[in-house]
Amino acid sequence: MRASLIQLSVSDTEPADERRARAAALVRAQEGADLVVLPELWPLGGFAYDAWPTGAEPLDGPTSDVMAAAARAAGVWLHAGSIVERDPDGPIYNTSLVFAPDGELVHTYRKIHRFGFDSGEAVVMGAGQEIVTAGTDFGVLGLATCYDLRFPELFRALLDAGAELLVVPAAWPARRREHWTLLSRARAVEEQAFVLACNTAGTHGGVEQAGHSIVVDPWGRVLAEAGDGEEVLTVEFDPAEVAKARADFPVLRDRLLGIPAPVQR
Ligand SMILES: O=C(O)CCC(=O)C(=O)O
After folding, report:
1. What residues does the CN hydrolase domain cover (predicted)?
2. How far apart are CA 257 and CA 101, in angstroms?
3. What ipTM was assigned to the predicted interfaces of this complex?
4. By CB distance 3.0 to 4.6 Å, which of 132, 171, 194, 214 could disulfide with 143?
């Protein structure tokens, strides 16, 4: 399969609608790929907190409109990164959107672990409650977002839900780039899965982004890694490598904790 990670540059100066149009053109240009991935909160910016109250949008809002059309035009599965979701009956959420190649919005994932400690997302956004996987033509995607990468128990839960390709959109800061790379590889090794981690480039909200989107195979090998700036990272791999790695080195068979106990006779 072929996957393209669109490491979009997000600034404070580009209006959201212009960035949506630019991102949609980049998605359309990936015709021939099986899966296209965008970063976290790219329409408004993951650290542009001031823009969130007015820029939040419903699931059928402007980002969904342009992304559905772009997925359909390119004929690709599209993980369109995440938006600031306005829930009419609740708080705002950091919500990822997955579109099928016919443009239908088939899965959404509300980020579970909110970043910021006593500020930003952690204060103004609601926490997702559900583990989400997405069945596709080429395997089962496990959905996580940025800070979620630091919580291995989420990835174990995704494994138990059948995930084979872990897709992680992010707005990960340059200051902690080493963690980004290390954790992406660790999650791939632990779950014996592909990790496709699509970060943001540029600077917004005063935070320089790390870039360095990365694709890691189930053995922890880096198949492709982007640089600092805006870039489309394209990689080809065989999703069947997941089952092969799990059979060749059956470490997951030796789990003792957190799985249903064997029946005592
Ligand atoms: O965990 C980190 O270092 C960065 C997380 C983050 O920026 C986010 O979740 O938006």
Report:
1. 1-239
2. 38
3. 0.96
4. 132
